[in-house]
Amino acid sequence: MNTYHVLSYWDVVAASVFLILNAVFSIALDLGLTRTLIVSALRMTVQLILVGLILKAIFLSASLVWTLLAAAVMVVFAGREIWARQERRLTGLWGPGLGAGAMLIAGTLVTFYALAGQIRPDPVWLPQYALPLFGMVLGNTMTGVSLGLDTLHSGLAQGKREVEAQLLLGRTRWVAIRPVLRRALRSGFTPIINAMAATGVVSLPGMMTGQILSGIDPQEAVKYQLLIMFLLGGATGLGVLGATFGSIWRLTDTRHRLRLDRLTGGTS
């Protein structure tokens, strides 16, 4: 079952006709979204073309060094995105470092487990398998970590008096912060839970769709998609747990005091 259809660049250009139609509607309805739509589409096109060229070169080289370098660049950009999306951030290197570190540990652990245990390419770091898998894991973990940290920091800043009241009553820092922590963890877990709940009923994920379009048996595509979703769920959970608990450890001290002076940004 191999009916892969090679697309021409004209096919890709033709697919953009409905996006152009949206821009025309934006002009007609004076929505002010035309520039954003066009710039976003052009940015995406340039990014994907460049990524395609870079990945092709890395795949041809089959070099461990280039594979690790590409993975490191992905972690740096994802860490920066987590840092940029938070209204209130940890000061110093903790700001960009905590989210990136949590993602790096969770993403590397889960990706290596899948490569060595289930997919088993030879060598195990073969970039054709390692980089796309690591990218998917990283992207989903990034969303969860970002939401978890943002909810945690905002909750601590807004609920400062309640937390400090609990600490004055003799509660430990982990007990006093538990309600805020629960909200942060729920926020971080929500995207992947929603994705798993909708997969197969509301949506067919991009990877599964791509495999089916390239001629893979749908039942085989389902197996791969299940593998990916389990990995994404596991990595997101580990990343969110690591980042939120690490942030609480940073925003309190061994004397069970709240240290919001180690937080910057926000309006209150």
From TrEMBL:
Entry membrane topology: Multi-pass membrane protein
Subcellular location: Membrane
TM region(s), chain numbering: 7-29, 49-78, 90-116, 128-152, 192-214, 226-249
UniProt superkingdom: Bacteria
Pfam short name (any one): UPF0014
Alphabetic keyword roster: Membrane, Transmembrane, Transmembrane helix
UniProt record similarity statement: Belongs to the UPF0014 family.
PANTHER family xref list: PROTEIN ALUMINUM SENSITIVE 3, UPF0014 INNER MEMBRANE PROTEIN YBBM-RELATED
Protein name according to UniProt: ABC transporter permease
